[in-house]
Amino acid sequence: MNIQTLKGFRDFLPEEYRKRLYVLNILRSVFESFGFEPLETPTIEYEEILMGKYGEEGDKLMYKFEDNGGRRVALRYDQTVPLSRVVAQYQSQLPIPFKRYQIQPVFRAENTQKGRYREFIQCDIDTVGTNSLYSDAEILAVVFESFKKLGLEVLFKINDRALLKDIPNKYLTSLDKLEKIGRDGVLNELGNKGLETQQANELLNNISKSKETENLNKIIEAYKKLGYPKESLEFDPYLIRGLDYYTGIIFEVVLRSENKSLSLGGGGRYDNLIGIFSKQDIPAVGFAFGFDRVVETMEELNIFPEDLYTTEVLVTIFSTDLEEESVKASSKLREGGINTELWLDANIKLEKQLKYADSKGIPYVVIIGPDETKNGMVMLKDLKNNKQTALSLDGVIQKLSS
Ligand code: HAM
User: What is the distance of C-alpha 278 from the center of its chain?
Assistant: First the structure.
């Protein structure tokens, strides 16, 4: 037996997972502050729901298989197509506009590298059912606000799919790789797809000459009116976004200061996707945070708060005959709203219990020895500065909740 995980699939041990929860909680609270509501969809969908919606690359990288009942199924590749299915399926029950957030793993059979996994978390916000420019601008605003709350200064690269609509998808797939493989690489690929060098050069030159559309300018105005800085948006005519379903504004987020090629998230308007499922076009716009890349970036920049550990106190056990005092004290502390861990084995020396608390980063321990029991007190020891104070349990609750 190989004791290992599959390539591109990861475990998250507590120290790492706490950081992920920190980011998740901030994102969720910003999403809710703009009126977005939670949604969850299944990991597995019928293959036909997902296939053909993303383009060549998506169809290739999708995990597809036959389930035990002989059905053709696929793993969630993003959260936009499942959302579109949900909208079509529950149309009469959903409020319009439908503003939802969704935080779930997605699966892509990619070549793995740093920041590129096969199972990763996306955090999506989408607004369905309106063409209002404020819905596009608001998505940008939520994203900007989220990164600000996380402590990251970001830049949006924006473009309009309308500018690219005459270019066949197969060429767009190659153009999308400009940053990755450079101009020569793109010219080479376009050549392999049948374009003469001169035509390919012309295509690239024409793109470089395109200007912001009126639609983009109006969205930028709306973004400004919402109170967000215009300087955080940068028109990039070469921004393609690999997915087939976009129809209007497209955008991607990079760090303002460094590594401008690492996309921390991306999105755009897709007005024709839901129509594939509902027979009636329903406009929509949204964005997905590449959660894992956000966490990694924050780690690299060292901007996580120092102490993310959530247990506030360890109640130690002094001896077998005083065990019950500790058990009762731990319940009382918890009732008082203090995150409390109770030591579980009276046969282990107190010194070891203190070491355990210290190694886990628990800031306080409570010790209840014979003297404390006699006086109806407990000893509260602050492990950081090694100071201890005799207090009543209420006193401990008061001190630790302040
Ligand atoms: P996407 O650009 O395919 O868009 O993915 C969004 C983000 O997910 C990327 O910017 C990147 O940060 C992250 N990501 C993509 N692939 C990987 C990977 N293999 N490992 C780690 N992170 C990755 C979408 O999926 C659209 N559904 C976004 C959207 C929502 N458009 C409208 N609404």
Answer: 28
Q: How far is CA 70 from CA 46, 111, 294, 307, in A?
A: 11, 28, 38, 50
Among 293, 294, 295, 297, residue to substitute to test ligand 1 (most atoms within 8 Å of Cβ): 293
Angle between helical axes of 133-150 and 14-33 (0-180°, round to 10): 140
Q: Residue 307: its pLDDT value, please?
A: 81
| β partners of residue 235 | 158
Residue 109 C-beta-side C-alpha neighbours within 13 Å: 11
- What does the pLDDT read at residue 179? 82
C-alpha–C-alpha distance, residues 238 and 220, integer Å = 18
Rama region for 18: left / alpha / beta (φ>0; ψ in -120 to 50; rest): alpha
Running along the chain, 402 residues long, what does each successive block of 10 average in pLDDT? 96 96 98 98 98 92 98 98 98 96 98 95 98 98 98 96 91 87 92 92 92 97 98 95 93 87 94 95 98 97 91 97 97 98 96 96 96 96 95 97 88
Question: Does ligand 1 lie within 6 Å of residue 57's CB atom?
Answer: no
Dist CA 83 CA 76 (whole Å): 11
104 Cβ closer than 6 Å to some ligand 1 atom: no
Measured at the alpha carbon of residue 15, what is the angle toward residues 9 and 17, in degrees to the nearest 5?
50
58 lines ligand 1 (CB under 6 A): no
Cα–Cα distance for residue pair 277/173, rounded to 1 Å: 25
Give CA–CA dist 182/179, Å, rounded: 6
148 C-alpha to ligand 1 centroid (Å): 20
Q: How far is CA 387 from CA 53, 120, 380, 382, in A?
A: 62, 44, 8, 5
Tokens of 243: 């997915």
Length of the chain: 402
- Residue with CA closest to ligand 1 atom 9: 265
Instruction: State in Å: Cα 217 to ligand 1 middle.
Output: 25
Alpha-carbon span 181 to 170, nearest angstrom: 16
Prior bond to 97 cis, omega within 30? yes
Residue 259 has a pLDDT of 67
From 172, 263, 289, 297, mutation site for ligand 1 pocket: most ligand atoms within 8 A of C-beta: 263
pTM over 0.85: yes
